[in-house]
Design a protein that fits this description.
It is built from 16 helices and two strands. It is mainly α and about 325 residues long. Helix content is about 70%, strand content about 0%.
């Protein structure tokens, strides 16, 4: 017996974490994850072979980001997510907010710029094309907060509160396209905020925090709206299979609670990353100033002291 027209069996047993984490190997995300890790690993190895280092923390963060994608898309969570709103919401929150943050902390663009060979003069290779894309008007537009914040919000409300969600969930291809969309929107939203990789919009740390807090509350509001609903709001999950032992409203209430609670996790992760980057930036600036003072004999401090002395002399007259 199929459920929702996407080929999933309707007689799944009641959901447990053990059943949900059983490996199923969804081919699209599995192959994509393996290829992504292989390319990242190639970049790291290329740097090390020529004597350049690459921070272990970035490597681990990127690997963790890829593994989170495998966790929610290549296990039975993906199967249960077809028939349980709550499990789908776990997939959505992880793939749109946790995975992008971890992937971006891995600085994949920076790695590519350092690892890709420069093309001969007068030609354009992969590295030159990447640089051109980063400086293009298109990237300036899609990475601007005026675009990223509304997109982040619209991809949530415009999907679940319109027939579009049911249309996409009617097929495996539509479901996969929706998950890719969640990942892309998360990467676009968090990329300028994280500021690890080069990009056209890199505001100060305070502005990045404001951008973060401008988008995150809407996930909480969305979760509250689901929990306050008195009838199923999404047709796909209006009639869960009896074998799951859950009602549509209980499942929807759980999905709302997940959306509401999960919005705090990326906020904390991003704030920690931003505070650490801010601290490192201040330390680097202090070291530059110390080196400058060593080179010029602390000329600025001597000039300032002379200025104070002149003021004191004037006051004594």
């Amino acid at each position: 017996m199929d459920h929702g027209g996407h080929g999933m069996t309707a007689d799944l047993p009641p959901f447990t974490l053990e059943r949900g984490l059983e490996f199923t190997g969804e081919p699209f995300f599995l192959l994509g994850s393996v290829l992504t890790l292989a390319l990242y690993g190639w970049g790291v190895l290329r740097l090390r072979r020529r004597g350049d280092g690459w921070p272990l923390g970035r490597l681990l963060a990127f690997a963790a980001g890829v593994l989170t994608l495998v966790l929610v898309m290549c296990t039975a969570l993906n199967e249960y997510g077809m028939v349980l709103f709550s499990v789908h919401m776990v997939q959505h929150m992880v793939i749109s907010m946790l995975s992008p943050i971890l992937l971006l902390l891995g600085a994949p663009v920076t790695l590519a710029l350092r690892a890709l060979p420069a093309a001969p003069r007068g030609r354009r290779g992969p590295r030159e094309l990447l640089v051109a894309v980063l400086h293009s008007r298109y990237v300036r537009v899609i990475s601007h907060p005026v675009f990223t914040i509304p997109l982040f919000i619209a991809s949530l409300y415009g999907l679940y509160f319109t027939p579009l969600f049911d249309l996409l969930m009617a097929s495996r291809a539509g479901h996969l396209a929706m998950m890719v969309h969640f990942l892309a929107v998360g990467l676009i939203f968090f990329w300028p905020i994280m500021g690890v990789d080069p990009g056209p919009h890199r505001p100060g740390y305070v502005m990045r925090m404001l951008e973060l807090f401008a988008g995150m509350p809407f996930h909480a509001f969305f979760g509250i709206a689901l929990m306050m609903g008195t009838e199923p709001l999404v047709g796909t999950y209006a009639d869960p299979p009896a074998s799951l032992g859950v009602t549509a409203l209980d499942d929807q209430n759980a999905a709302g609670g997940i959306a509401w609670a999960f919005s705090e996790i990326p906020s904390v992760l991003v704030l920690i990353a931003l505070m650490f980057q801010w601290y490192v930036s201040e330390q680097r600036q202090a070291r530059r100033q110390d080196r400058k003072a060593d080179r010029d004999g602390d000329r600025e401090l001597a000039a300032y002291n002379a200025y104070l002395a002149s003021l004191q002399t004037r006051a004594g007259r």
